[in-house]
Each structure stands twice: as C-alpha cells, then as structure tokens.
Amino acid sequence: MVGTQLRDTAQELAAVLWREHTVYRERSGGMVIRGEHVRRWISLAPAGGRDEILVRAGRILDGGTTAPARSEAVVPLSAGTGVLAATCRRLLADAAADAARPAPDRESAGRPGGSRKSRKPRKPARRNGGGRHTGFGSWVILVCVAGVIALFAYSSAMHG
Fold first, then answer.
1. Does this model's pTM top 0.85?
2. Beta strands per DSSP E along 22-159
3. What pLDDT digit, counting tens, does each position of 63-78 carry?
4. For residue 84, how many other CB atoms are within 10 A of its CB?
C-alpha cells in the first residue's frame, strides 16, 4: 500500500516541480525524481511513522552521478502535494545554495553545516631544524648502526 501511494505521490510531485523529469524506484523501495535539466534530484522514502515520508534533495554531478543528499525533511504523506512541493522547493534551494558556495580550502575543509562532534585543530607539520629532513632520532639510529659496524670491523681485525 505504501509503495503504491509513494509512487503515485512521486509522479504527482514530479509533474508539479519540473516539466522534464525521470521517476524511478530505488533499491531501498523509495522513489527518486531526477531533474537532469536543473541538475537536482529528490528522494521520497518511507519514514519511521506510518503516514510519514523522508524527503531528501541533492545535486546531480557531471557525468550523471548523484551527490549525497545535502538536506532532508520528514513530511506527513497526508499533507498533500502542495505542502510536499513547498518542502521540496526549500530543500532544492538548500542544495543549490550549497552548490553556489566556493569549495573550502584544505585547512578549513569539514562537513557542511558544522560537525556534530568537536574536531581537534590540525597540528602544523613539524620541520626538523628548519629545512633538514633528518631528525634527532634518525641521527641516534645512524650513530648506533655506525658504532655496531665499527665494533664488528675492529673485532674482525683483532681476531682475524
């Protein structure tokens, strides 16, 4: 029952949102509406409640692959196509706003919208002595290896 109702809702919603669209069922049983001309997608899936659906929206990348959902909302299925379309437009606007933001640089790269758990600040790369690549620990190991070789050579010369 929910699958048929979800499919019908997706068909109605697709017609309201975009003139050009593709509607298909995804593996998990939800429905996907793709608007290739606007490079966006919407997913409708059953939510936790009996009369609720999870609506997710995201972008379509170059080559036709889909980016992960940028925003989602839970909507009562009985709310009607108008309320559902308004929710989808808001989610699509969020996805478009994410696409318009410049890509963060490597230092400040993080999850959009902030992270749920605090992240430790990155430590700057340690430079040993300003430009040398060999650190103190490496020198200790080299001196020990040289000592063992010298001891072996001395021992061989004395006994052999």
1. no
2. 22-25, 31-35, 40-46, 52-59, 71-76
3. 777 777 778 889 887 8
4. 24
